[in-house]
Amino acid sequence: MIAAAAVFFPIVGASGASAEPPALRVPVDCALGGTCSIQHYVDTKAGDGARDYRCGRQSYDGHEGTDIRVPTVAEMHDGVPVLAAAPGRVKALRDGMPDAFKDQLAEGVLTNHEAGNGVVVAHGDGWVTQYSHLRLGSIAVAPGDTVRAGEQLGTIGLSGNTEFPHLEFEVRHNGAVVDPFTGARKGAGCKAGGAGLWTARARERLAYEPGGLLAAGFARRKVSARDVVAGRVKAVRVAPGAKAVVFYALTRGLRAGDRERIVLRGPDGTVLAKDTNALSDASAQRIRYIGTRTPDGPARAYTARYTVTRGNGDERQPVVDVRRELSVR
């Protein structure tokens, strides 16, 4: 499992439990389902274990926000704007924490700073939104600023307690965590229902996606999920003298029972390697690869296909279906 925790910046909220909640827009400027995707939802389950608002497993125990990620640090460096989800006033912020994977940080750096760089916006009547794990130096507002819905606050980063570049978006009312997809308080259960807090357009853009592809490509050796997310795969690209060709696929949100199939073919369509697998456990982030040795140097072209299906018997539906081609020159 991968997890990214955030700690709320403490501020004093106003009272007013009967007040109307803010209508929330999508808090990032990116193509959901393309450039970015939802990795985790609020944990709706009280007690041990975790369930997202659709009773799926795209959450982890105690998670309080919605994690909207980009696949790798390359997209982070391109700059993905984080936007105010509703009008309000900046009540608190933090900057100065480096963009780094949590295991790269010195001991004690994360103490009381798990959320990394971030911004808290108050919307009145006790409603607050928090934007965590922002990129170092990207914050574009100051305490006391009035912000419009859609105004840029910063960009997606890798700061704080995290293993992938993302925004963790949290909603609170009078200090209690609220799931923006249902409008219910955290722990109310995945069948709590409710229209949620998103605008109609935002809800459409944030449609539930039970798993998907993050990245896929070729390398000259086996690569790890960290290699892909950190952008190190470019350093192991396939060149004419390579002794192996490896195809990899990085996925998110796979479930127990999902079936993987991966095939690598040579220039004439000959199958060089293939494998199938049924997952025994859910996987928040998973790397899958297959390869072939090339003692005399690689051939000029390769084709790989990776699929994941879900369901029972003949009712299986595609979750991932990706094809990649490689030309070696």
UniProtKB/TrEMBL annotation:
PANTHER family in the record: MUREIN HYDROLASE ACTIVATOR ENVC, PEPTIDASE-RELATED
Highest taxon listed in the record's lineage: Bacteria
Molecular-function GO terms, alphabetical: metalloendopeptidase activity
Name the UniProt record assigns to this protein: Peptidase family M23
Signal sequence coordinates: 1-19
Domain M23ase beta-sheet core, residue spans: 63-180
Keyword Phosphoprotein (UniProt): no
Coiled-coil intervals, chain numbering: none
Alphabetical UniProt keywords: Signal
